[in-house]
Amino acid sequence: MSDFNWQNRPVIITGAAGFLGRHLIAALAKAGARVLALDQAAAPEDLPSEVEWLQADLMSPQGMAQSLDQGPGPAADTVLFHFAALSMPVDCARDPERARELNAGMATALGRAWLERGGRQMIFASSALVYQPVEDGGNISEDGPVLGRNAYTEAKLAAEQGLSSLAAEGGLALQIVRLSNVYGPGAHTGTVVLEAMQMAKAGQTPIMRRPGEALDLLYVDDVTQGMLRLAALEPEPGRRLVNLATGKGWRVARMAAEVSRLAGVAPPPDDESQPGYGYRLVLDNSRLRRFTGWVPQTEVTEGLERTWRAYIA
User: Fold this and answer.
1) With a threshold of 0.70, does the pTM exceed it?
2) Of the candidates 287, 279, 85, the residue with the CA atom closest to the CA atom of residue 175
């Protein structure tokens, strides 16, 4: 937890039942924040007693308005974390129109409604996948070229653009956080780490689709701390764009080999002949470190072990 005092600080989290939402709720509840959790799903059984949960349809203007009006404090003093979205690219590919509505249209509508209620501070979870892929390159800074190469990235970029316009014209204090490859207990089964663990748990060598890729594997607890440090900054009207990442690349095959070791199965091959070799999606995190002093605390080997233990429990 950052040094910022979260005691009684009002916070709203959309997408509260999702992977990031659940972990952020736990951290904020422990810190004493007053949290309103919004999601279409029912409240989980292990919800901290001090957290208010509201089943909300944020795609409905009426549902969105009613939800924001039930905030835990004055809107001007409240931090709004927006995580609600179709979070998996494969789901967006199946229904591109729904992806645009949920991932772009809802985000912009939420930002507008938040401003109308006197809200100032909003943190939006975007993705490293919006960056144009590089071959044998270095770490990608926030100034790196972006590319809407599928329904998921097109919707994320449209949301960034819509919210950025609100920040420029309406005074929203917006922070766009481009997350690298997040993993940890409770992650979606379609993520690369959980795909490896599924195979390993079944006693199989994890044979990945693109084992030669170098990805920026970021443990979810480090994401939570980074988000909280950003939220603790003094709100300033306008857009702030930051990468939340380790800045270190791990080949998918190396990750799969570590999972194999944890599971006691044979590791996959790891050489230059593997698909994806030379592709690198690793982000430069120097801007975030400069703003907040945040550095990731969890080494990948440690994070994988924690995730594996939770997965097989």
Assistant:
1) yes
2) 287
